[in-house]
Amino acid sequence: MKSGWAEHDAQALVAQCAKSGIDRELALRVYTTRLLGRDRSLVLHGGGNTSLKTRMRDRFGEEVEILRIKASGADMAAIEAEGFPAVRLAPMRKLRGLEAIADLDLVAIERANLIDPAARNPSVEIMLHAFLPHKFIDHTHARAVLSVIDQPDGEQKCADAFRGRLAFVPYLMPGFGLAKKAIEIYERIKPSDGLILSKHGIVTFGESAREAYERMIEMVTLAEDFIERNGKSVAIARRGSDVAPVAAVAPIVRGACSVKDDVTEGAWRRLVLEFRTGDAVLDFLDRTDLGRVSQAGVATPDHTIRTKNWPLLLPHPEAGKLDDFARAARETAGKFAARHHDYFERHNRRVGGDRRELDPLPRVALVPGLGMFGLGRTKHDAAIAADIAEEWMAVVDGAERIGRFESISEAEMFDCEYWPLEQAKLGLTKERPLAGQIVAITGAAGAIGAATAKAFATAGAEVALLDVDLAAAADKAKAVSATALALRCDVTDAASVEAAFDEIAASFGGVDIVVSNAGAAWQGRIGEVEEATLRQSFELNFYGHQRVAQAAVRIMQAQGTGGCLLFNVSKQAVNPGPNFGPYGVPKAALLALMRQYALDYGADGIRANAVNADRIRSGLLTQEMIASRAKARGLSEKDYMSGNLLGREVTAGDVAQAFLHQALALKTTADVTTVDGGNIAAAMR
Ligand SMILES: [Zn+2]
Hints:
alpha/beta; seven-stranded mixed β-sheet; seven-stranded parallel β-sheet; elongated
């Protein structure tokens, strides 16, 4: 591993920080923390931490010794000076005299000693940094180091690999106990460069930011060299090329990794998927000892809350035999959940029975021959789980090359996964109503489509925006969420629809809700209209919806967790306008189509509903049309747009809320919701 230190960059940051009154030491603390953070093989997603001991004046003008430590969960790659809350050092060190302290009490003491009471919580590893005497301390979960120390004989390997420059601290859960053990060992051995925290990571220290950082790089390089020198090759059994495509496999995996909500009938707890593949992943999955290594546990304790202790190991999904795969996937996922429940029960009893069980669903699924899925309540969480799982594979692979990968015990994993500080966060942030669900919207670049995408994303769903105009859909997607997916989809072309839904399944793992919204208006007196015009309208305003619904139902059936089809029907279906037959007739057929889906798929938990909207500013009713129609009726534009029983203009946002309401109404199917401000001639009943 090469040092990333660049004198020019370091000085540039020092100069830049000086402008905001940040001193050189803190600026360099920020600089090397970013260097560590930008390398995935050192730290990932909030893992790792760094600190600086210095002096500052408190609010009374008195100079005090302080510890600046990375804030809990802060991302090292993008950290700023504010990411290092300052804590009075003396009271923190005084805690060493205590035998033990409850985690929540410790947090309270830390907060009480913050120089800025509004600062973020310091890292949970604060006490380790406080007790060690060094000015700069760096801590990472470096991949190569973990490969060397996640071993039954980790202490011996550590002595060999690091040539006695790091002292070995036996495994203890991160926190006060570990910090006490670490300082005791440090004072006894006085290692020159740092500490190894068994089955957890590495600490280096120094009198300057650069010294601590360069030592980290040097130690990681020693670990890499050790693996290189002593590594043996791994037995791999290549699988055939008959693997089913990810778009077909993902919905089965997603369905298998969902559980029925035990409170609300018809509701499911679902997860979003993130697929990863490539040579490293496929080689790992082709290992002949995959059964053993995949169940051997986490690479470092804080991964437990992201990936759970073990991944779900699924069979090879052979093309053409997905029914067998689906059966096996459900059975394996069921056993996983039962194992997690049993693990919870046993260990909860051990710690006094006060913990709350988390969902028993896997966060990583391994599919030999195909790749790996990260799973999460959001796409963001799924991607984090996938990143960590890829890192875990690399650690295990390295460890197995030089010995045998060994993780912390099941009890130790439980203590991390069900740590009171983590448990305290439960229920503090209320989950959004559509968390874990995936929605596809057609005609998403239009006014109603875009408003609907926004409304569903706000309700917590992951959103795919489909439109014939990809650039416009991509533009809208940016405004919806960081994870919104824009896809080109021409609903008049069956292949285009299939391809778009395959892409959704491959990207998110499946689909739960479809808002079939794409449409366009044709006019003409029905007795005189060209047949070609009528057929063209049917292609878009009827068959387009049928193709979309068919593609969605195929995925929903593979998931086996129900679903919801929502159609934009328009009031034309029940209250035709003069010379609007070419638009209204296929819309009337669409209303019947919705009812047919409700009838045919109700037993599978798939609901079908429609919204009848009227007079919305959109591509179908442009500003020019509004102006000319208002003029023709001798009305102002405002009076024309609000010409309904309530006298209120109806907006795309109102239609979006109607779709959202139908998506959330789990006992409602074959419903038509009217959103037109009141038009008694268009009333359904
Ligand atoms: Zn750590």
